[in-house]
Amino acid sequence: xxxxxxxxxxxxxxxxxxxxxxxxxxxxxxxxxxxxxxxxxxxxxxxxxxxxxxxxxxxxxxxxxxxxxxxxxxxxxxxxxxxxxxxxxxxxxxxxxxxxxxxxxxxxxxxxxxxxxxxxxxxxxxxxxxxxxxxxxxxxxxxxxxxxxxxxxxxxxxxxxxxxxxxxxxxxxxxxxxxxxxxxxxxxxxxxxxxxxxxxxxxxxxxxxxxxxxxxxxxxxxxxxxxxxxxxxxxxxxxxxxxxxxxxxxxxxxxxxxxxxxxxxxxxxxxxxxxxxxxxxxxxxxxxxxxxxxxxxxxxxxxxxxxxxxxxxxxxxxxxxxxxxxxxxxxxxxxxxxxxxxxxxxxxxxxxxxxxxxxxxxxxxxxxxxxxxxxxxxxxxxxxxxxxxxxxxxxxxxxxxxxxxxxxxxxxxxxxxxxxxxxxxxxxxxxxxxxxxxxxxxxxxxxxxxxxxxxxxxxxxxxxxxxxxxxxxxxxxxxxxxxxxxxxxxxxxxxxxxx
Length: 499
Prior knowledge:
Layout: H1 2-7, H2 10-18, H3 24-42, E1 45-48, H4 50-65, E2 77-81, H5 108-115, E3 119-124, H6 158-165, E4 171-175, H7 182-187, E5 191-194, E6 215-219, H8 222-232, H9 250-256, E7 263-267, H10 277-292, E8 296-300, H11 308-323, H12 344-355, H13 358-370, H14 377-400, E9 403-407, H15 423-427, H16 434-439, E10 442-450, E11 457-464, H17 469-487
Parallel strand pairs: 2-3, 7-8, 7-9
Antiparallel strand pairs: 1-3, 4-6, 5-6, 5-10, 9-11, 10-11
């Protein structure tokens, strides 16, 4: 029975639990057993507590037995990226500086999913403080891609993407600052979405870059991702950037799966040199598929997108430099060298030197320099001006089209270790996703095939205006349905990984 349960979609599993065909405890046990089998190789999780998870599942079964009206995902397991605070499990952001830290409060995303009846399986691996594109920057070892264990699962939310792709979880949460949900979703053959900035609460999310960080969902199909996004989205007065507006009807759009009459813009700047041939082949096939389903496809130019990467790597490190100043060894977390002879400043320096990894240190140094006296206007200020130009490019494009499309990532999953010594090559993995973060729009990645060179997944990115997340889901669901109807498309069901 366990094998059958973990192959069900989250929507199917939720319906089966609601109908009394299976209990939340049985679903949790099936996934916990799968985690125990897969983890020695995948390393998707940083923390799993079987008893805590089963206690949550029993509580959901009791709530349902008492007649409580629960949501469509009640009893369905979910894995949380280890950047969302949880009172009953450690929250480390994959950093030694927070090793073993147990927060005194739940993140809004965590709390809302608990209230909706989802059962937390555990906390997933990630690039330290969400800084990376491969999950190789974790202080607790890299995660492996279930499609090919010699390759990365993307990042920074690579633990979440690998867990869902390896059938260790039906759903997972992640955060997208420059592509950290969409890029790992693409290279692991999953659906991953970046909601509109402010559409999902950042309260209780350990901050990397506050004007960019966006919580979002991972799933093996578009409807499951939409249901998860709806479950944790909505206005939160504890987040000053939260939008006080109705949640876009993403689940309804996912069920509609129709693009007839939609205007689709192909972004000219997000293709060409540096893109893997097989990625471009699958992308072009997806565009032709949309056209065959009744969409009107046109080419759109967004010239400022060519400067997005440079602007992002000034804005994000600057905000990281400011946000990570709170990890000072004085209040919580790691403390090194406090032997009674050293000053507070010396203890801070020793702790941060030991507790932060190389990539985090690199970005703190870059950001501190960009914010320093005499350089602020030249670097950070100029990058913010570029950000405005990118936003204007989006606004101009959306005057003529309903959505924009591009490859999600320039290449398929690259080998572990291939880019660790070349930060610029690593940063290029987010080339297609960064513009949306800078503008604050919504975007979604949906699997669109396997690259002929290596047989690894390729993602189609669908970008929509702010608070029009449902448009991206509508297009993603239509592509998913058409591919499944045409070929059966085994790649749409998760990786072929087996332990």
